[in-house]
Amino acid sequence: MSIPPENNRDLVILEQIENDPDATQASLASRLGVAVGTVNWHLKRLIDKGYVKARRVERRKLRYIITPEGLALRTRLTVDFVQTQFRLYRDVRQQVIHALEQARANGYDRVRLQGDGDLADICRLTCLEQNVAIVEDGNAPILAINNLKIRILWEESSL
Predict the structure, then answer these.
(1) Membrane spanning segments where (predicted)?
(2) Final residue of a domain: which of 66, 99, 117?
(3) Does residue 132 sit within a domain?
(4) How far apart are CA 90 and CA 94, in angstroms?
(5) Are 61 and 90 members of one domain?
(6) How far apart are alpha carbons 156 and 54 in whole angstroms?
(7) Which of 92, 84, 119, 67 is nearest to 4 (CA)?
(8) By CB count within 10 A, which of 14, 31, 32, 59 is most buried?
C-alpha cells in the first residue's frame, strides 16, 4: 500500500527542480541523502520519459526544466503520497482504537505510551479523542508502538 521508493525520489527531485532550476546533481543528492549516481539515474529516467529537459547553460553546467508532463507527474505523485499518508494515519488510528478498547474492557482508562515520532503523535491524538489519559503510572498497561503495529502490553515482562 506504500508508494515505491523511486516515486518518492522522483517527487522530491521534481519539487527541488521546480523550486531551484539551477540545482545540480550534487546538490540534489545532498538534499536527498543519496549518491550522485542515484540522482543521475533518476534524472536520466525522467528525461527519457519526457518529464524533465536538460539545457546546457555553461560548458559543464545543466539547467533542468520540468515539462508540462513532468508537472502532471508531480501532481499525481503528490496526490498518491498524500493518499498513502492518510491511509497510514487511518490504519494506525484504528489499531490504537482497538488497543484502547482492549484496555477499557480490562477496566483501564489510561495507558503508558511506549514509542515516539509520528506514530506516537497519532497515538496521543487518538487517546485524547477517546478520553484515555497517557500516564507514567507503572500500573497502567502499555500502548506499544512496534514498527507500524500498535498493541497493548499488560506488563513490563511482555516487552
Answers:
(1) none
(2) 66
(3) yes
(4) 6
(5) no
(6) 58
(7) 84
(8) 14
